[in-house]
Amino acid sequence: MADLELLKKLRLETSISLADCRKALEETNNNYKEALVWLRKQGLEKAAKKAERKTPQGLIESYIHQNGRVGALVEILCETDFVARTDEFKNLVHEICMQVAAINPKDIDELLKEEYIRDSSMTIGNLIKSTIAKLGENIVIKRFQRFEIGD
User: Fold this and answer.
1) 74 CB burial (10 A radius; 0-12, 13-18, 19+)
2) Are residues 85 and 137 both part of a single domain?
């Protein structure tokens, strides 16, 4: 049986459903660190299953940095407008936009392989996959553009 305090902590940290958090703790004998790893693995498997789904909805986000000297524009797509309106999806789009402004990747493949600026243990690809696991929909980066004064 899952420890209630660990269950609450895991749910707060990951935003993954209580049922999945409970299962992770049960599968790992209430070992919190192992439960996080278990959830990440399950999330990657779920994301792989959703990779072929169509993504007709999404958001376009802009980010301006360094007193207006650097800016980025990204288009991130998902399956439904319901998910596109969630705070979780909006946050992901904003974070990817900031990543583009900070790193200046040459293409989507490079962006997906980049270390996430807020957590070097995670790539942008893994950040997207973990969000797919939380939201239950396929998410793809459609396109992006970075602008810099004098570039």
Assistant:
1) buried
2) yes
Give the lowest-confidence range in 44-48, 101-105, 128-132, 143-147: 44-48
Q: Are residues 73 and 111 in the same domain?
A: yes
- pTM of the entire predicted model: 0.72
Going by C-alpha positions, the residue among 133, 144, 139 that lies closest to residue 110 is: 144
Which residue segment(s) compose the domain that 133 sits in?
57-148
- What local confidence, expressed as pLDDT, does residue 100 receive? 97
Instruction: List, in order, residues 6 or more apart from 16 with CB less than 8 Å away.
Output: 10, 39, 43, 133, 134
Q: Which amino acid is at 108?
A: I
User: Average pLDDT in the 46-72 region?
Assistant: 86
Instruction: Kindly indicate the confidence band of residue 22, based on its pLDDT and cuts at 50, 70 and 90.
Output: confident
d(CA 138, CA 50): 5
Tell me phi and psi for residue 21, to 5 degrees: -65, -45
Do 72 and 138 lie in one domain? The reply is: yes
